[in-house]
Design a protein that fits this description.
2 domains, elongated, single chain, disordered N terminus, 7-stranded antiparallel β-sheet
């Protein structure tokens, strides 16, 4: 916009009858103005925290087409806190989408999964799992909260959905929002 204004001002000055001698003396000043105008840059759009998170996953995540036949290719990050063979926390973020003809990954959906794995004295896993499915803009599609029981080999012995969703919808919604915000902050703060 400023470049256009300066250029128009120069053209108007030339068209109102400024003499050649008068212009000649002003050429260095005009050149300086044109150089300054060329150096003006359009303001860069603000990157939202959500966009920064997607960029981080694209830059540091692992690309996989293992799920392409079921869902879509994905880029994901797994962050495991503690040894996997003992009580630990596992958090996952995945971008689901496709690669464009230029090779860029286009995100269509995002998932967050958070699991607290507690190993009891009999080698049985008690797992508290949250999962969130999100649109590419970060808005929630749905969430699930489960309690799973598995033996040490990974065989599921029991699986139960959080009854609070039905018994106390308002309480569940507050718990769900708190967990979503926790995961969003955790991934925003994550340093690969």
């Amino acid at each position: 916009m400023k470049t256009t204004t300066i250029a128009v001002s120069i053209l108007i000055g030339a068209s109102v009858g400024v003499s050649a001698a008068g212009i000649q003396g002003r050429i260095p000043a005009l050149e300086g103005a044109m150089t300054a105008a060329a150096e003006l840059k359009a303001p860069q759009p603000q990157v939202t925290p959500w966009q920064a998170l997607l960029s981080k996953v694209k830059a540091t995540g692992v690309y996989s087409e293992d799920y392409a036949s079921v869902i879509a290719p994905t880029i994901g990050i797994a962050h495991i806190e503690g040894p996997k063979e003992a009580t630990h926390r596992a958090n996952y973020v995945n971008l689901w989408g496709f690669k464009t003809s230029s090779g860029d990954f286009e995100t269509m959906m995002v998932t967050f999964v958070s699991e607290d794995w507690n190993l009891d004295a009999t080698n049985i896993w008690n797992i508290d799992q949250w999962s969130f499915r999100l649109r590419a803009d970060g808005s929630k599609v749905d969430s699930n909260h489960y309690r799973l029981v598995e033996d040490y080999s990974g065989r599921v012995l029991a699986h139960e959905a959080d009854r609070q969703r039905i018994d106390d919808p308002a309480g569940f919604a507050a718990k769900e929002q708190a967990k979503y915000e926790e995961l969003l902050k955790r991934w925003a703060d994550y340093k690969p």
